[in-house]
Amino acid sequence: MAYSDLELLARIVKCEAGGEGENGMQAVASVVMNRVNITYGEYGRLHTVREVVFQQRQFVCAMETVGGQYNAQNLYNMSLEQIHWDIAEWAIAGNRLTNLGFALWFFNPYSLNCRPNFPSRVGEFVIRIGDHCFYNPTDAYADT
């Protein structure tokens, strides 16, 4: 399906953080838009929400299969509500959560502790929102 960037962002927000409340969903939208807007490193070569969302192995919700099994929790199966559209519009308009910094990564550690770096030493822990840990780029990220 050919979704607009707005709908694609709303769908990835719902799929990745629909159970994390408004702040959690805004944080995920911020990460996607930070990747769209960064001008250097690996994500500096991506320029649209579509390129960011569908970059290989970045968002489980953008995958129809995981480990050879159908992934029922994918963005195509999301039923959007007004809040998902509102958050996508908020992020595309240039808004970001101020306590998030310029986070480029998030993940759920399935534990109480966030590791200090993610996905490697290119990302440094900045904040936990709900079940997700968020990471800002370090100087090493520029070389990716």
Give a summary of the structure in a few sentences:
InterPro entries: Cell_wall_hydrolase_SleB (IPR011105), SleB_dom1 (IPR042047). Residues 19-135 form the Cell wall hydrolase SleB domain. This protein has 144 residues and is of the alpha+beta class.
What labels would you give this structure?
5 strands, single chain, 144 residues, two-stranded antiparallel sheet, alpha+beta, 32% helix, three-stranded antiparallel beta sheet
Q: Could you describe the 3D structure shown?
A:
This protein is an alpha+beta fold. The protein has 4 helices and 5 strands, in the order αααββαβββ. A 3-stranded antiparallel sheet has the order 3-5-4. Strands 1-2 form a two-stranded antiparallel sheet. Strand 1 and strand 2 form a beta hairpin. Helix 2 packs parallel to helix 4. The longest helix has 17 residues. The protein is globular and about 40 Å long.
Overall mean pLDDT: 93
Query: What's the Cα radius of gyration?
Result: 14 Å
Count of runs of 4 or more consecutive helical residues:
4
- Taken as a percent bin, the fraction of beta residues is 5-15%
Compressed to H and E, one letter per element, the order equals: HHHEEHEEE
| Termini separation | 31 Å
| Order of strands across the main sheet | 3-5-4
Number of strands: 5
Structural class assignment: alpha+beta
- How many strands, what sense, and barrel or not for the largest sheet? 3 strands, antiparallel
Q: What does the overall shape look like? A: globular
DSSP helix fraction: 25-40%
Low-pLDDT runs: none
